[in-house]
Design goal:
Blueprint (H helix, E strand, L loop, with lengths): L1 H8 L5 H18 L4 E5 L4 E5 L5 H8 L6 H8 L7 E5 L5 H10 L4 E5 L3 H12 L6 E4 L2 E3 L3 E7 L20 E9 H8 L6 E4 L5 H11 L8 E5 L9 H7 L2 E6 L3 E6 L22
Parallel strand pairs: 3-4, 3-9, 4-5, 6-8, 9-10
Antiparallel strand pairs: 1-2, 7-8, 10-12, 11-12
């Protein structure tokens, strides 16, 4: 497996290299036969145990880490400070939290939140393999209010766990109960007086988390940077439009995410209905 991983991880960013890496990844998955693999993931620089057979995130981190959120991580690297406050909401197995923690140092406050029980166990294990990374893990869901929520789980891709129904070809989606907090409650309980950056990826429920926070909490605790998983077709409000009305400017759009920076204090209006499209709805 070592030579195969070396090939896929160094196949290059061009089209041919990516196609060759995908072909070899299929061979590697068959060889692993559902076994986890312990690796040092570059460019994150973190020691991780990855289970690639039922989680697309871990599959990419193992075989093609050079392709995982490379533009987002490059941007984030330029924002890291020694006392950074970073919230990784929908942290999965901890790659982004570890990326920030290993560069920020011990004075940073980094919170990794993951509700899916099996993925949370993997997150905690990975954090423990990197003692230099000071990350606090929390196992709860984030929603618009406190209480119990139902999480829908795709058994073929655990990273698709969502509070909104997951469609699985042929059926087979599982459902589990989890405790939920609002983002406002989480911030108060953790004692955050400011937030430098939030990464929010909760599989289509981002509006349930962010809209109540921006319309109900003081501007002093609004994050300076929002890294948002982009899935407007699943949102009930125009979340990108709300961010713009709150003084945020879009600075980066990738295949999976959109990044906003807050420029100035602007009075916030109520979130617009989804059908009132923002100028971001048509971006590539």
């Amino acid at each position: 497996m070592r030579w195969l991983l070396s090939f896929t991880q160094n196949a290059g960013l061009h089209w041919f290299g990516q196609r060759a890496a995908l072909i070899m990844r299929g061979i590697g998955l068959r060889r692993l036969k559902s076994r986890p693999t312990d690796v040092t993931v570059e460019p994150i620089g973190a020691n991780m145990r990855l289970y690639p057979f039922n989680n697309a995130c871990e599959k990419r981190l193992l075989f093609t880490p050079q392709l995982v959120d490379r533009d987002e991580l490059r941007y984030l690297a330029g924002q890291i400070t020694p006392e950074m406050v970073f919230l990784d909401l929908g942290a999965s197995v901890g790659a982004t939290s570890l990326f920030v923690a290993l560069r920020a140092g011990p004075r940073a406050r980094i919170l990794a939140v993951e509700p899916q029980p099996r993925i949370y166990e993997r997150l905690v294990y990975n954090l423990r393999q990197n003692p230099a990374a000071t990350v606090k893990a929390l196992d709860c869901a984030l929603a618009d209010a406190e209480g119990a929520v139902t999480l829908f789980i795709n058994p073929y891709n655990l990273n698709e766990t969502s509070m909104r129904i997951v469609n699985v070809e042929g059926g087979g989606a599982a459902a589990v109960q989890a405790s939920a907090k609002s983002l406002a409650t989480l911030v108060r309980e953790e004692g955050f007086t400011h937030i430098d950056a939030i990464k929010l990826d909760v599989e289509g429920a981002e509006d349930l988390v962010l809209e109540p926070f921006l319309t109900g909490e003081p501007e002093s605790v609004w994050p300076r940077i929002v890294i948002l998983a982009y899935s407007p077709e699943r949102w009930d409000v125009d979340l990108c439009g709300l961010l713009q009305r709150c003084g945020y400017r879009r600075v980066l759009r990738t295949r999976a995410n959109v990044i906003y920076e807050r420029q100035a204090a602007v009075p916030v209006a109520a979130a617009a209905p989804k059908q009132q499209a923002s100028i971001d709805d048509g971006v590539r």
